[in-house]
Amino acid sequence: MIHPILSRIPILRKFVDERFLEHRRRSSSLAGIIGGCLSICLWYYRLAFDHIWSWDLFVVALAIVGIKIYLMIWYCLTD
């Protein structure tokens, strides 16, 4: 099956296929997970060693964890 964007722009069919889209999806997912882990580690470092409570990093870490858990439950229930 051809992606809807590829059917509208013929020149992209030559360069973009399903493998490209799957690699893009997987790399974006991995980048999000690594970014979330780094923000959690930085929040913990600031709390443990500098004794600074970084609310901004705490909210980012909480949002990433919450969204990840919500999506895991959603995909489990709708799959």
Query: Proportion of β residues?
Result: under 5%
The whole-angstrom Rg is: 19 Å
Task: State the separation between the terminal residues, measured CA to CA.
Answer: 20 Å
Largest sheet: none
Number of discrete domains: 1
The chain-level mean pLDDT equals: 81
Form type: elongated
List the uncertain runs.
none
Tell me which oligomeric state these chains represent: single chain
Structural class: mainly alpha
Give the number of helices. 3
Order of helices and strands, N to C? HHH
What do these coordinates show?
The protein has 79 residues and is mainly α. It has one domain. It is built from 3 helices and no strands. Helix 2 packs across helix 3. The longest helix has 31 residues. The two termini are 20 Å apart.
Key features of this structure:
76% helix, single chain, elongated, 79 residues, mainly alpha
What is the topology?
Blueprint: H1 4-8, H2 18-48, H3 55-78
Helix pairs in contact: 2-3
In short:
The protein is mostly helical and 79 residues long. The protein has helices at residues 4-8, 18-48, 55-78.
